[in-house]
Amino acid sequence: MLASAKAYLSKNDSSAAAIQLKNALQEDGNLAEARFLLGRINLEQGDVPGAVKELQRAFELGYAKTEVVPLLARARIRAGEFDRVLSDFGSLELDDPAAQGTLLGAVADAHFGKANVSESIRIYQQALVLRADDADAGIGLARARIFNNDPVGAEEAVRAVIAHSPDNGNAFATLSDALQVQGKQEEALKALEEALRLRPDNAAYHYTLISQLFRSNRYDDGVERFEAMKKVAPNHPSTRYLQAFIDVRAGRLTEARDGLMGVLKQAPDFLPAQLLAGTVLLRLNDQAQGRSYLNSVLSRAPGQLMARTQLIGSHLSSGEAPRALELLQPLLEAPTNDARILGLAGQVFLANGDFAKAEDFLQRAAKAAPEDPQARLRLGAARLAGGDAEGAFADFESASEMDDTAIQADLALVAAYLRRGEADKALEAQAQLERKQPQNPLVYNLRGGVMLAKQDVPAARAAFEKALSLNPDFLSAALNLARLDIGERKVEEALARVRAIADRNEKNAEARLSLAELQLATGAASADVLATLERAEAAAPGTLPPALAIIQHHLRNREFPKALAAAQKLGSAYPNDVRAVEALARAQLAASDTQQGIASLNKLAALRPQSAAPLIMLADVHRGAKDNAAAEQALRKALALRPDAIDVQQRLAGLLLERGDSAGALKIARNVQQQHAESAAGHVLEAEIEAAGSRWAEAVSAYRRAIERKAGGDVAARLHSMLVRADRKGEADRFAADWLRQQPKDLAMRGYLAERALAEARYADAADGFGAMNEASPNNPLVLNNLAWAANQLKDPKALGYAEQALSFAPDNPAILDTLGVIQIERGQADKGLANIQRAVSLAPELAELRLSLARSYAKLERKDDARKELDTLMPKLQDGTPLHKQATELLKSL
């Protein structure tokens, strides 16, 4: 068998030889020569573990050291066993000079592998003295010199290899590296092409050549070469990685993501694939998984700039400014004049509220890149945030003038003018956009927004339609037109606009999600909304937005088991994504699984250690569960993160007040007043604490201080209420009249006064108040509902119309359904009215007022058994002595 194997080897048939050698070793496992030959074949075929095993066994069986040791050392190098090579063979001397030269080459490889570059160069040179034609040692010397910043010496060494081994593809690949470092791009590419001519099946050569072409902006040439690579190595990780890279360039992010997941399954430590996967996942808004890959890259290559900057950007976009600052610090340890890094630093400091440092870095960025409009644009944003509006506008205008094609600066300028309410100046800035990019639909969509700010609806509609004429799939313009359609009660036209975009591209999940939102807003059936959301999920399977929308849909419809099932599925797929974990927590709490909800919120807090939001949610849950101690603990943790957070301090004051510590609550209110001296919030909090203790005069004084600090109509309404409680009704009425004269469009005070009139059965005053609100803010369903109720009490024939109009804007609102039903029954439309009230109860079965209304309606229609049935359901849920209990008892007696 051994002789047969040798015969096959003489014919270069290694596979047949390996079969015979294995057969021989089954008969006699101590055949040292068979072990050696099989080990050599394994090494040639890339089976490194098999090669190490067989060559080590041949060495132990006493096979000639001059033959087995050099190969065993090479096999161990390829296995990454550098320490083992140095310990076993570092000082070994072989009798044969050529064998010793080969061994020294392997020892030098081991030193190079351990980054002992100078020592590796010394030993490579020794090896080449003993065996000048040792290609591996010559190539090793060249690579070590490249690493040692001696590309010229590297070129010299590898050209010596090529002189005696012109068919060595690895030598030409190494020559390419040496030339590349010297900036000899074209020569480097030619060397790689020669390496590929010699070894057309070598995936590494293909990968390097294509990568260099991409880096040289010869993208089409790279894609052409990639087609050749796919033919020789279609399933190689490098091939699949390059396909993903090409998909990213073409905007096929979902395909790129799927391809990269396959690459990383094959080669989990392939750094370029980890970096690209992180990039793609961030662009797909899968922040958690994207960050995990980028963090993995940084753990192995802390200096990888792209990974670090993308991580910083991700944390900035999620509002995690402290984490972004932490990641930024290594980039600031050494002085830099890189405009990109300086600009990023400015954005990070801006997000952290350090306006001085932000402006400093952004000014340096603008100075480092004086022709870069983006740098000037970011500086303008920083100045605007810091209160320097004039400086900001100057920067925006400068950025706009610097770049006569890009439009970001012009967009910022338009937005800034709109925020200041200067619509005419915004329109002038928008005209610059039209001059720069007259075929860009975004430009006309923006014009439509400016025209809406000017209350010119026809002009706005014309601008949005122009945007759609340029790009029929421009979703933003279609949505703007749909909203105008809805305002004109053209619901079907509105839905058709967005549905057309979704139908033209089944993969357009965003269009489906937008369609679902419109369906919800226009009163579509719940099943229809869900069907649209499910099509969005099918369009982008495995992505978060559709799944989150479905969970929210089930929660909104009180389908808590379905919401929980969907949230659990999403949580399993994205266990570390903050949005998935938050959705799971909300579903668990809605399904009354409080402990699991608390566990999810604790996990959310761990995933967002610098955010107070999860802790606030946790505190609210604990308080709802009557665990005030745990609620207070969570709030104090949140306050440690955000010491000046008003919402946290308001909650904490409420807890202290609940346990009778009004002094502690007032201390918090005074602290808020010191932290936010120009804000009304601290004084409002003080007023509410005083009111809770029935100290009406003190509450009035605190509310007045809040009004002095520009508090709104809701606070004005509370001040009126306190004055009434303090038996100062005349003063209260004078204050309300003065307020409405000064603030005629304030709906909060008007609504409060109208609600008060309604509760006191002053229906004429209520109708006047709600009527004025309807004129100021038409099409508000709740205002129309209250106007309908008041008008009905006055026997106004318009009441039914108001109620029907309210329902058209909010078709699933139980209160509106009840109002309309009551009015319909009184107007002789018994069947319609009863159906509406029954639907109201089905939508909100826990609202006692609605069930009592249904019982009254049955009684009015002489359906006494049905009325008793409703009251039997209702009465056990009512507390003795309450107004509802009294009304229900009287109705039951009347039956």
TrEMBL record:
Signal peptide range in chain numbering? none
Superkingdom of origin: Bacteria
Mark the TPR repeats by their residue spans: 169-202, 339-372, 441-474
* Pfam families registered for this protein in UniProt: TPR_16 (PF13432), TPR_19 (PF14559), TPR_8 (PF13181)
Record key words, sorted:
Repeat, TPR repeat
The record's annotation in InterPro entries points to: CellSynth/LPSAsmb/PSIAsmb, PEP-CTERM_TPR_PrsT, TPR-like_helical_dom_sf, TPR_rpt
The family database entries (PANTHER family) matched by this protein are listed as: LIPOPOLYSACCHARIDE ASSEMBLY PROTEIN B, TPR REPEAT-CONTAINING PROTEIN PA4667
From the Swiss-Prot or TrEMBL record, give the protein name.
Uncharacterized protein
Q: Which organism is it from?
A: Thauera linaloolentis (strain DSM 12138 / JCM 21573 / CCUG 41526 / CIP 105981 / IAM 15112 / NBRC 102519 / 47Lol)
